[in-house]
Amino acid sequence: MSSVLRSYKGIYPEVGERVYIDPTSVLVGDITLGNDVSIWPLVAARGDVNHIRIGDRSNVQDGSVLHVTHKNKENPEGYPLIIGEDVTVGHKVMLHGCTVGNKVLVGMGAIVLDGAIIEDEVMVGAGSLVPPGKRLESGYLYVGSPVKQARPLKEEERAFLQKSSDNYVATKNDYIEEAN
């Protein structure tokens, strides 16, 4: 796994317990992965000019890009990337300097930009664009480019948010077991 974990200015990613990182992915710098996280093929994550935190049981799927924004005079904290627990980040998603709450699904090909905040229990539709600074309220489906609140989540959709995370933890465990 060490070839996928690279330092930046002497800071290496920190990895929790029972984590799976596909060997085709690259994680650089100030990145912390919680327990039971899975990082799938061809994910690029750069915690170079700010930090990335990914909570327990979250998964980042194939081809996704994770990055951050510099700290500067106009924005002293910059924009780190914070991903909560039980989050499913779909295939080919771009998350840049944003905050994603717990039990969130970010659909395939979505783009979430600097300073955006996705609260807990939200679904972001495939191909959606979340503009800089936009806040997505808990309990809703959001779709479009730019994203708009479509409707409240149904109970089965809320339940699916946890089920998706659970499914990826189980799949990740299969990959780890096969590697041993």
UniProtKB/TrEMBL annotation:
<dbReference type="InterPro" id="IPR011004">
    <property type="entry name" value="Trimer_LpxA-like_sf"/>
</dbReference>
<protein>
    <submittedName>
        <fullName>Anhydrase</fullName>
    </submittedName>
</protein>
<dbReference type="InterPro" id="IPR001451">
    <property type="entry name" value="Hexapep"/>
</dbReference>
<dbReference type="InterPro" id="IPR047324">
    <property type="entry name" value="LbH_gamma_CA-like"/>
</dbReference>
<dbReference type="InterPro" id="IPR050484">
    <property type="entry name" value="Transf_Hexapept/Carb_Anhydrase"/>
</dbReference>
<dbReference type="Pfam" id="PF00132">
    <property type="entry name" value="Hexapep"/>
</dbReference>
